[in-house]
C-alpha cells in the first residue's frame, strides 16, 4: 500500500512538471459554473464567483484565474482534487478572514497568485500546499513579514519556494530581512515600497541562488550595494525609482562582482547620463533605459559596453540617434521609439553591421538618408510606426533580401500609394541585385483603400518603370 501511495504522489508531481495542459474539462457545471467561467485550451477564467464548487473527480488545468469575485469565501479543501500549474485569485477584495485554514488542502499547484487583494498577511492556508514553487502577494495591504505568523508560514513553504513577489505602498517601509527563510529563492520581485535604504545583508540566505531581481517603485537613493553579493544574478530590474538619478548610479561595484549579469533594466529612474558603471558587468548583453531624460551618451561609456546586443532607449528625450552608438558594433536590436528623432542620417547606423532589428516608432521622422543602411546587411525588421513619413524612404532599398526575409512596419503613417513606389516591386523581385525573398510591409495607403502589401503585390507591376529613387 505504501508503494502505491508513493507512486501516486510521484505521478501527481510529474503532471505538474511535464508541460501545459491544453484540454478543458467538460462544460456541464460539474467542474465549474458555465455562466461565470470560460475555458480555452486548459486555461480557465472565472469572474463574479462567491464559491468554488467541490470537485467529484480529479481535474487538471494549466491556469485557473478567478478575478473580480467580491464576496468570495474559500472554504476548507475548496480546491481538493485540482491539479493546476498556476492558480490566480486577484482583484477580489479578499481578506485573510476569507480563507479557512485548510482552504488549499488537496491542491497541487506550482504558482499561487494572490495579488491585488486586501490581505494583511500571507494566508496561513498557504502552509498546506505541498511543494509550492511560486507565490505572489504584491499589491495587498501587507506592511511587513516580521511577525511570528509570517515567519512560521515562510519557514513552512521556504524549502520549495523559488519565486516570490511582494510590495505595497505605503505599507512596507523597510526591507524584509525575513526573506532569509526562502533559501532556494531564484526570482524576487518587489513591486513597490517606501524604503530608501537596504541593508548590506538584504539577500542573506539566498545570495547564491537568486537569478532574477526586480525592485521597483521605491524611494531608493542609489543602486543597493547588497546587489553586489548576488553571485549568480543574471537579470536586474530597478525601474521607477525616481530618486536614484545619475548620482545614485555611482556605486562602488567592482568588476569581480555580478559576473553573470546579462540583462539590466533602469527604466524611469531620472537618469540623464549613460552610466559608466554598466561597463563593469562583463557578461551584460541587454540594457533597457526607457523613460529617462538622456542628455549625454559618452564615448567612454559606449566603448565600455561593447558586448551589448540589445539596447532600448524608448521615451528618453533623444532628438537624434546618438553618434556614440557606433562604438557598440555588437548591437543586434535597437529601440529608440517614442523620442523626438526627425532624421536618420548617413552615418547614424554606419558601424552597426550586426544590426537585425531597428525600432523607431512614434518619432516625428521626415527623412531617412539613401545611404543610412549601407552596411546593414543583416537587418530583418524595421519599425517606423506613427511617424511623419508620407512615402516609403528610398534608403530602404539598400537592405538586402538575399539571405533572409524582411519586415517593414509603416502602420499609422500617411503613406501615399502611387506609381512612385514602383521601385519597391523591382527591389522585391530582384531588380536591384536582390532575389525574391519575402518582403512584408505592414500599413495602409492613405490615397486609396488598400494595404501597402496588397498595393505592392497587385498594383505596382502595372506601373511604368522609372527612376523614382535615383537608382
TrEMBL record:
Protein name in the entry: Leucine-rich repeat-containing protein 40
Signal peptide: 1-19
Keyword Ribosomal protein among UniProt keywords: no
InterPro entries on file: Leu-rich_rpt, Leu-rich_rpt_typical-subtyp, LRR_dom_sf, LRR_domain-containing
PANTHER family: NON-SPECIFIC SERINE_THREONINE PROTEIN KINASE, PTHR48051
Organism: Mizuhopecten yessoensis (Japanese scallop)
Keyword Zinc-finger: no
SUPFAM superfamilies documented for this protein: L domain-like
GO cellular component labels: cytoplasm
One Pfam match: LRR_8
Keywords: Leucine-rich repeat, Repeat, Signal
Amino acid at each position: 500500500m505504501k508503494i502505491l501511495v508513493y507512486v501516486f504522489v510521484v505521478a501527481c508531481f510529474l503532471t505538474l512538471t511535464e508541460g501545459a495542459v491544453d484540454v478543458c474539462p467538460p462544460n456541464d457545471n460539474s467542474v465549474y459554473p458555465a455562466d461565470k467561467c470560460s475555458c480555452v485550451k486548459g486555461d480557465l477564467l472565472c469572474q463574479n464567483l462567491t464559491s468554488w464548487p467541490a470537485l467529484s473527480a480529479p481535474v487538471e488545468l494549466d491556469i485557473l484565474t478567478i478575478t473580480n469575485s467580491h464576496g468570495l469565501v474559500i472554504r476548507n479543501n475548496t480546491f481538493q482534487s485540482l491539479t493546476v500549474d498556476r492558480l490566480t485569485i486577484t482583484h477580489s477584495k479578499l481578506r485573510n478572514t476569507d480563507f479557512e485554514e485548510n482552504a488549499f488542502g488537496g491542491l497541487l499547484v506550482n504558482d499561487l497568485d494572490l495579488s491585488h487583494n486586501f490581505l494583511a498577511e500571507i494566508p496561513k492556508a498557504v502552509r498546506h500546499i505541498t511543494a509550492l514553487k511560486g507565490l505572489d502577494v504584491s499589491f495587498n495591504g501587507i506592511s511587513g513579514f516580521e511577525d511570528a505568523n509570517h515567519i512560521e508560514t515562510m519557514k513552512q513553504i521556504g524549502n520549495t519556494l523559488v519565486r516570490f513577489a511582494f510590495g505595497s505602498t505605503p505599507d512596507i517601509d523597510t526591507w524584509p530581512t525575513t526573506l532569509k527563510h526562502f533559501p532556494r529563492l531564484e526570482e524576487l520581485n518587489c513591486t513597490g515600497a517606501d524604503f530608501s535604504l537596504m541593508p548590506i545583508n538584504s539577500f542573506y540566505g539566498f545570495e547564491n541562488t537568486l537569478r532574477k531581481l526586480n525592485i521597483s517603485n521605491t524611494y531608493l537613493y542609489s543602486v543597493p550595494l547588497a546587489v553586489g553579493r548576488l553571485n549568480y544574478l543574471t537579470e536586474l530590474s530597478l525601474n521607477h525609482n525616481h530618486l536614484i538619478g545619475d548620482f545614485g548610479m555611482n556605486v562602488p561595484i567592482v568588476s569581480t562582482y555580478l559576473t553573470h549579469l546579462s540583462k539590466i533594466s533602469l527604466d524611469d529612474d531620472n537618469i540623464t547620463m549613460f552610466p559608466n558603471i554598466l561597463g563593469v558587468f562583463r557578461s551584460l548583453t541587454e540594457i533597457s533605459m526607457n523613460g529617462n531624460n538622456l542628455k549625454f551618451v559618452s564615448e567612454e561609456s559606449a566603448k565600455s559596453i561593447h558586448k551589448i546586443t540589445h539596447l532600448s532607449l524608448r521615451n528618453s528625450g533623444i532628438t537624434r540617434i546618438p553618434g556614440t552608438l557606433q562604438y557598440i558594433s555588437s548591437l543586434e536590436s535597437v529601440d529608440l521609439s517614442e523620442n523626438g528623432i526627425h532624421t536618420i542620417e548617413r552615418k547614424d547606423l554606419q558601424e552597426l553591421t550586426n544590426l537585425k532589428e531597428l525600432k523607431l516608432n512614434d518619432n516625428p521622422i521626415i527623412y531617412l538618408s539613401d545611404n543610412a543602411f549601407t552596411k546593414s546587411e543583416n537587418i530583418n525588421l524595421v519599425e517606423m510606426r506613427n511617424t511623419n513619413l508620407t512615402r516609403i524612404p528610398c534608403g530602404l532599398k539598400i537592405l538586402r533580401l538575399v539571405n533572409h526575409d524582411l519586415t517593414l512596419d509603416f502602420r499609422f503613417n500617411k503613406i501615399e500609394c502611387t506609381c512612385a513606389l514602383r521601385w519597391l516591386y523591382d527591389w522585391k523581385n530582384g531588380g536591384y541585385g536582390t532575389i525574391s525573398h519575402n518582403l512584408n510591409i505592414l500599413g495602409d495607403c492613405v490615397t486609396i483603400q488598400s494595404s501597402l502589401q496588397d498595393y505592392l503585390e497587385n498594383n505596382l507591376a502595372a506601373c511604368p518603370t522609372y527612376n523614382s529613387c535615383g537608382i
